[in-house]
Amino acid sequence: MNTMKILALPLLVTLMNSPVFVSVTVSSSRPKVEVHEHTDAVLACEFRTEKDPNPRIEWKKKGKEVTFVYFNHKLTGSYAERAKMEGATLTIHSVTQKDSGEYRCEVTASEDHVNLGEATVTLNVLVPPHVPSCEVPSSVFVGSGLELLCKDKLSVPPATYCWYKDNKALTATEESVYSVDTNKGTLKFNSVSKTDAGMYRCESSNSVGAPKSCVARQLKVIEYPLNMTILIAAVAGFVTLVLFCCICVCVCRRRGRCRKDKKTKSTESYNPPPPPPPIRNIKHYKQTHSFMI
């Protein structure tokens, strides 16, 4: 036991006299920041160095390409007019949805043993609902299918939707003749009836702000008029007649070709006998035939 103590004493003295290397450390007290649109966003960055009293501080934003926010002791681009630096903490004024993303605070201490440290801060800009775009046709025929569309592309988090008919919310049930998708903003009818006519509007909402609604639009449900029915029947009959005539013409042409081919073949197969040679000596011919008689 005494031997172990004697051996450990020199090692302890050596460790106490040797220099301690402490690398630069970078951190953020708020790695995730959520703020409303058009307010200020504070991206906190704290650091500690071993020796370097004036380390180099940089802020970068990640995206398709990495862009500088703070570089060479200056704010860059549009940030020069709407941001400020306090130590290593970055404050962006009046943020918009375009400012959402991942930011990186980098501290380089050239005099330290390990001279580079970094921290990441994610900024999410919340956007209240906007007036949604609504697609409601002015009229539709009885019995036809119908889909009404509603969309708010700007709200963050994404909006949910509710359809209203004559200022009454539409909720799909097992007995209802329509279906509602609150996430996609669609209202579907498999077969429209006269009772589906009315004033339709859509409302978008999320957890950030008050709901917004589009202007209500009138939907008319009309029946096929008698003249329209007659016209459809006449067109269908005409198309049928044209097809029938085309088929008859094709059949007749085919039969005519077959008959022509048969006549051609029969004409080619018939070979008449050669004519008798011409009579050159009529007198001799008469004598010969009279003798035979």
Automatic annotation (TrEMBL):
Residues 1-23 form the signal peptide. Residues 19-122, 129-220 form the Ig-like domain. It comes from the Eukaryota. Keywords: Membrane, Signal, Transmembrane, Transmembrane helix. The chain crosses the membrane at residues 228-252. Coiled coil: none annotated. One of its GO terms (biological process) is leukocyte cell-cell adhesion. SMART domains: IG, IGc2, IGv. PROSITE patterns: IG_LIKE (PS50835). The keyword Signal applies. PANTHER family: JUNCTIONAL ADHESION MOLECULE 2 PRECURSOR (PTHR44663:SF1), JUNCTIONAL ADHESION MOLECULE B (PTHR44663). This is Ig-like domain-containing protein. It comes from Zoarces viviparus. The lineage of its organism: Eukaryota, Metazoa, Chordata, Craniata, Vertebrata.
